Each structure stands twice: as structure tokens, then as C-alpha cells.
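Input sequence (232 aa), recorded before submission:
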Amino acid sequence: MGVTGIIGAMEEEVNILKSKMQVDAIIKKASMEFYKGILNGKEVVIVRSGISKVNAAVCTQILVDDFKICRVINTGIAGSLQNKIDIGDIVISSDAIQHDVDATGFGYELGVIPRMETSTFIADEGLVSLAKKVCEREIPDIKAHIGRVVTGDQFISDKSVKERIESNFHGYCTEMEGASIAQVAYLNQLPFVILRAISDKADDSAFVDYPTFEKKAIEHSVILVENMLKEL
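Predicted structure, C-alpha cell format:
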């Protein structure tokens, strides 16, 4: 089974999981605290990466190098990019891409990272399938969607920006860490999945919706991760 790395961007996202685990060690590195131990009978390392792509990427590489993880689950919240995806729903990554990578001046398409074989990072099919099954069983009152997670160093709260991102990348949700974690996983040939509970619509209502629905969204993420671990 190996060690599963579980990354959340914010303390709220990982506190509940940490409170449920048997903590064997807390290792501090790069201003992050890595909680190593057992959750639901499985070896895990749970960590708050901090918000933004750089923090998330650094965190993922530390998990690979120092903890020898064999898979990574990134849990958190996001803004919906599709009308069919409501607040409270879960998006499970089919793949991930960065919307703020722009080398179009050199002839690349928007989102393409120059000199890489791919800029679209495909999630592990087994983890995606497991997440969908567990979500439908454990949280039957919400919908689980499998689709693209779109990442950038922006909190999207403008309808026109949301529409531009959706039009360019056809994403299901937008957030600030997932695709950078996916890129590090790809470079290390590591299976990954990104789980996002929808907290807002990524438009002009985002600042109103986000605080209201954040707590519920986090609860859904915790239920999903806990029950996925049981079946790994």
C-alpha cells in the first residue's frame, strides 16, 4: 500500500484529518509541518502546503524526497466554472492545467509550459474511480463530477475572468494549488488525484459565498479522504 501524502492548502482543510490520525512524528521543513502516522489503518503524511502554486509544489517534492510517498491526494475547496456544478458538489480531477502560464509571445498556446512534453497532467484512473465511488456512497446528497481542475495564482471572483478561463481551458473548477501538485507528481511519476469541494461560483458572488460554504465544503472533503484511505 505504501505511504499516502495528503496535502491541503489551508489549516482548516487538514486540521480535522490530523485530529483523527495517530501521529508518530511531526517533521518541520520549509516552514511546513508534516504529520507522519496512521489514519484508518494506513500510513499517511498530512501537511498544510500553504496557498499558491509555489508552496504546493515545494510541499509535494518534500513528500516525495523525504517521505517516499507512493501517491498524493490533494484535498481542498474551489470555485465552480460550470453551471451544472453547484456549491457543495465535489470535483474529482480528470486532469489539471495552469491557466496563468502564458508563453504565447513565443508561439505557444495559452497554458502550455515551454519545453515540457505535456502541460496537461492526467490524474490516476484508479484514484479517480475510487474517489467517485466513495463520494457517491458516503455523501449521496451531493454530486461528484469528474473533470479538469484549472489552477492559477488568483482567487477568481470576477464573472468575466471566470468566463475567459472556462472558455480557454474548459475546466470544471478553479483554484490555486492543484495543477502545480499534479506537475510535480508527473515529473516524479507519482499517482495523484485532486479533490475539490465547491465553495463558490468563482464570479461576483464569490466573496459572499465563500465564507458561508467553506465549512461545509471542508467537511465533505474530509469524509471523502477518510473513506478513500480505507479502500487503498
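Checked by second reader. The CA atoms of residues 73 and 230 lie 14 Å apart.
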